[in-house]
Amino acid sequence: MSISNEQVIAHPFLKALYRDDYYPDTVVDRGKDILLRLCERIEAERPAGLPELYALTHAASTDEFNALQDEFWAAGSEIETVAREEIGEDFWFVAGAYGFADADSEELIATRDW
């Protein structure tokens, strides 16, 4: 499935991480892919409200980004303060881009361990 939301298509996901050599692009690429898959799921499933949206974001932040943390470590990096903020901001961007401007930024990623 391809993404149809123009805001999402134009958005430079994880921009700050790509600009910093501390974060390997190959691992950041995987993070960007997680966010894009989240967008695809939102477009496919069309969550009716915040509980349904949070279920989708929790799956992405918990299962996928938590697993990605190991790849950052293996590459000599980690999901630390800068990365946490950048990832969290992109989850919040996604929520807003799909009409959930009232989403709680912390709840979007509440199940993370990074």
Question: What attributes does this structure have?
Answer:
114 residues; mainly alpha; 68% helix
Q: In words, what does this structure look like?
A:
The protein is mostly helical and 114 residues long. Helices cover 68% and strands 0% of the residues. The protein has six helices and no strands. It has helices at residues 6-10, 15-19, 25-45, 50-74, 81-97, 105-108. Helix 3 (25-45) runs antiparallel to helix 4 (50-74) and helix 3 (25-45) runs parallel beside helix 5 (81-97). The longest helix is centred in the middle third of the chain and has 25 residues, at 50-74. The chain is globular, with a radius of gyration of 13 Å. The model has no long low-confidence stretch (mean pLDDT 95).
Beta-strand share of residues: under 5%
Give the radius of gyration.
13 Å
- Low-pLDDT stretches are none
Element-level helix/strand string: HHHHHH
Name the shape in a single word.
globular
N- to C-terminal distance: 29 Å
Largest sheet: none
| Main structural class | mainly alpha
Number of helices: 6
The mean pLDDT is 95
Task: Kindly state the number of beta strands.
Answer: 0
Task: State the helicity in percent bands.
Answer: 55-70%
